Amino acid sequence: MSKQQLRQIWSARVAEFKASGQSVPAWCAEQDLKPHQLRYWLRKDRESSKPTEWIPLNLGNNSETAVTLRVGQVAIEVRPGFDPNLLLSVVKTLTALC
């Protein structure tokens, strides 16, 4: 099973747990899962839903300066005029895959 498939399975489980209104031990007993597994994925879910914080970057007067971002083993070159929403989507996708 790939990491992506595992994340999808647990994403669905986390959503089911949240909708159930049950405690972690009760829900896990019904699902035949260990509570520590659910707690791990609940923490991952919380971390992934934290808002991204943009940090200002002063490049001086050079409007042609590019910035290189690294996410895992991937390098992304960002040039003036980039689309911040596209960059955010790309970084979130790469982070989920790493």
Question: What do these coordinates show?
Answer:
The protein folds into two domains: 3-48; 52-98, no CATH class. It is mainly alpha-helical and 98 residues long. It has a two-stranded antiparallel ribbon with strand order 1-2. Helix content is 55%, strand content 10%.
In short:
The chain has about 100 residues and is mainly alpha-helical.
Lay out the secondary structure.
Blueprint lengths: L2 H18 L3 H8 L3 H14 L18 E5 L2 E5 L5 H14 L1
Antiparallel strand pairs: 1-2
SSE series = HHHEEH
The portion of residues forming beta strands comes to 5-15%
Number of domains: 2
| Helix count from the secondary structure assignment | 4
Distance between the termini: 15 Å
This entry's quaternary arrangement is single chain
Mean of the pLDDT scores? 84
The gyration radius over C-alpha positions equals 19 Å
Q: Could you list the spans in which at least 5 consecutive residues all have pLDDT below 50? A: none
Q: Strand tally, please?
A: 2
The chain-level structural class is mainly alpha
Shape: elongated
Major pleated sheet: 2 strands, antiparallel
Strand order of the largest sheet: 1-2
Provide the helix percentage: 55-70%
Main attributes of the structure:
2 domains, mainly alpha, two-stranded antiparallel ribbon, 2 strands, 98 residues
